Amino acid sequence: MEHFRRPRRLRATAQVRDLVAETRLHRQQFILPMFVREGISHPVPIASMPGVVQHSTASAIEEVRALLDCGVSSVLLFGVTDHKDEDGSYACRSDFILQRTISELKDTFGDSVFVFSDLCLDEYTSHGHCGVLDAMGRVDNDRTLLRYQELAQSLASAGVDMVAPSGMMDHQVAAIREALDDMHATECGILAYSAKYASALYGPFREAVDVQIADGGDRRAYQQDYRNQREALHEVELDLAEGADMVMVKPASYYLDVLAKIRAFCPVPLTAYQVSGEYSMIISASQAGFIDRKQTIIESLTAIVRAGADNVLTYFAKEAAGWI
């Protein structure tokens, strides 16, 4: 019988575990989603997301200042307003809260902060859908793309670094890229919501952006079915072909299998969005004393990165940055 030398068993101290860890978190991986609301002068708490607020432009600047001090330099902005109409036209105004906040953040911090902006219509439409509706009350894909193009150009004019179209319209990446190229905004990138599922985990977000879908409707006609995986891979391929600079999986924790599959072939940076429901579940369970808050947050973020995400959109960005 061939003899072999058995390896010595190391004592698994914290130092040894850190030395051989396969997955590591770092602050620059985190992107903080932020809500900016018209007509407020101070932060307004979001009841279903304890610790998260709707910001004024002034408080958003102070939040980003604190974020930079923690080593996190990227934010994704969502606009909130009471001015809503059938086709979300108010969002395209140059003096809208979203555009004003983008401009002031870039004027204040320059390239020290990387600003993403949501590009969708649900926050600004009276019916709560992500696009313009036709006479039958269905989302009109092609008319919606025209509004997305207008909004993309408005955000680029404000100085945004990258737009993030979340509406899941067919060919939205190509339409937005064409609109940006037409105004020579070649440095404005596109983070495509390529694998965005019709999930139950968006509930707290709807409160955060003050969105209700008319007549109790849903978005299953244009968001992806959570029972499907191959569909997501196909959507990523389409967005890459249309010029996406980054792609996203949303939500994150329930879709790590999708994330890993996309990582296997995707040549561009891959983002995962740890959404409002994921955040609120961790907060609620930790407040009840059922789980350890810090350990659960770090474990959840590590799992997302381990599955293949290059960066993570997370409401825990500032908190987690202080621990790593």
UniProtKB/TrEMBL annotation:
SMART domains: ALAD (SM01004). Pathway: Porphyrin-containing compound metabolism; protoporphyrin-IX biosynthesis; coproporphyrinogen-III from 5-aminolevulinate: step 1/4. 5-aminolevulinate 1 binds at R206, R219. SUPFAM superfamilies: Aldolase. GO terms for molecular function: porphobilinogen synthase activity; zinc ion binding. GO terms for biological process: protoporphyrinogen IX biosynthetic process. Homooctamer. Catalyzes an early step in the biosynthesis of tetrapyrroles. Binds two molecules of 5-aminolevulinate per subunit, each at a distinct site, and catalyzes their condensation to form porphobilinogen. This is Delta-aminolevulinic acid dehydratase.
